[in-house]
Amino acid sequence: MRSFFKNVLANIVAIVLLCAVFFVFFIMMMVFSSMGNDKSVSVKKNSVLTINLKTNIMDSPTEEEGGLFNIGDKTKSVLLYDVLEAIKKAKTDDNIKGISIEADDLHAGMTQIDDIRNAIEDFKKSGKFVYAYGNAVSQSAYYLGSVADQYYLNPSGMIELKGLATEVAFFKDFADKYGIGIEVIRHGKFKSAVEPFLRNDISPENKEQLSTLLNDIWKNTSTKMAVSRKIDTAQFRTVVDSLYGMIPELGLKYKLADKLIQKTEYDQMIKSKLSIKEKEKLNKVSLAGYISSYADEDKSGEKVAILYASGGINNGDGYNEIYSEKYIKYIKELQNDDKVKAVVFRINSPGGSANASDEILFELQQLKKKKPLVVSFGDYAASGGYYIAMAADKIYSEPNTLTGSIGVFGVIPYYKDIANKNGIRSDIVATNANSQYYSALNGVTPYGVNLITRSVEGTYKRFVHFVTQNRKQTFEQIDSVGGGRVWSGVRAKQIGLVDELGTLNDAVKFAAQKAGLKSYHVSSYPKRMTPFEQIFKDLNEEDVSARIIKNKIGKANYEILQQITNEKLQSEVKMEMPYQIKIN
């Protein structure tokens, strides 16, 4: 009997403790949820709109990390479209007297900085001031800051203005040395994603496309910086080649900065300009805060929807990238929503799964039958990212968008030699001739290679077919600019791969015009996750381990690790761009 009561008491205690844990967890989630919500900001007179390090500019809501792993992080994430609208609104807002750019580094892509820069140029037409201040300034931050009327640098600061370069690593000798076999099947001499496994040096074709691409992008960005700073282009090249920005006195001498002052002196200078007394506070409003000040305005009525597609393209269901099941659901919702009169599909993707890309394209083609579909390119619209644009009524690209890469490949690793060297061998028992056409220990059979080659070639022909339909060109014309080659947005416009060079805002305006809308508001999809949803998403065991690894080794290294370890990424025919370019 004593044992019975003992067990009952133990169970009661366990239940109470479990309830207490759930109660505490619920309270924690409520606290985190309230922490995640932006408080509405009241914009006072003599305010300055501030772009600083606490602003993470996203191209898509799915880029937001959030959740348990970002608790305590004061960085506010804002959508690019909202940033551009905020700067546009600030232009006519009597309470906003100017813009202060205070970013040593930027959480933003190349085309995003371009758009913000253009928006600030338009803001300057109001006659309001734009100033910038820096300490240890990255190239991307200076690209934005150089648009200012005056650029101020810390006396012990630096500007890392160096131009663009790319470094390609090769693994063929490593694979040969350690007995790792890699079967590569590709279409397109420019499909250089697989080159590191085939060669020990860069191919002439890849060197040509990289050189053209880097020079196109640098010409665009360097010209804008030189014009803004009123520096002769030849002298600007000398300044960059000589890394003069690394020495503050030389940065001042060669007009990269207007004055060397401390941050306190910079703030005091703005206060003086606004006739604010020395002891009074300077009203600085962040982008996130300013956006929240008018976020609750009425948005009922007809809509233009922006469907954001950012990241790699994958089969299945997920949130942080482009997953076919999820995006098919989004597209169908937009297709059936009578309030949505037009859709802008914002693509910022280097590609991925050929199968998932094809599924998404089909659903977009069905959407286009019911309402206008306009595509806007961000930093990347390459390979599968370009493929899913082929349902568009019109395609807008940024000048620096990396686009095209019309090509297909498959990479199949195997470990026969290294296994044999270490005394590992295998025998196969099968029911059919090709039951084991691929084995990690024995590689791909000749018949398997032939079959996969046919699959790659068939996928390439299907890719080009959809491009010919959308771009109204012949197979031969598209094939001549395809072959896996990546182009800048400027070149893509010249060769007919896109319709216009323009921003996301331009795409929205055209979509509204095509739908015959005079009054409308813009709605973003997918919706940003609530703090609740972020927390529960983070509790997924696989996601927790992935985030821990990503935080330890960095996002770029984690993406490389995924390519090596993720079976889904290795087993599919891929439409993917071989590299990324960032102005760091």
TrEMBL record:
The active site is at K191, S383. It is found in: Membrane. One of its GO terms (cellular component) is membrane. Residues 123-265, 366-517 form the Peptidase S49 domain. The keyword Membrane applies. Its EC number is 3.4.21.-. GO terms for molecular function: serine-type peptidase activity. CDD domains: S49_SppA_67K_type, S49_Sppa_N_C. The chain crosses the membrane at residues 12-32. GO terms for biological process: signal peptide processing. Pfam families: Peptidase_S49. Keywords: Hydrolase, Membrane, Protease, Serine protease, Transmembrane, Transmembrane helix. InterPro entries: ClpP/crotonase-like_dom_sf, Pept_S49_pIV, Pept_S49_SppA, Peptidase_S49, S49_SppA_67K_type_N, S49_SppA_C. PANTHER family: PEPTIDASE S49 DOMAIN-CONTAINING PROTEIN, PROTEASE 4. Belongs to the peptidase S49 family. This is Signal peptide peptidase SppA. The lineage of its organism: Bacteria, Pseudomonadati, Bacteroidota, Flavobacteriia, Flavobacteriales. The gene is sppA.
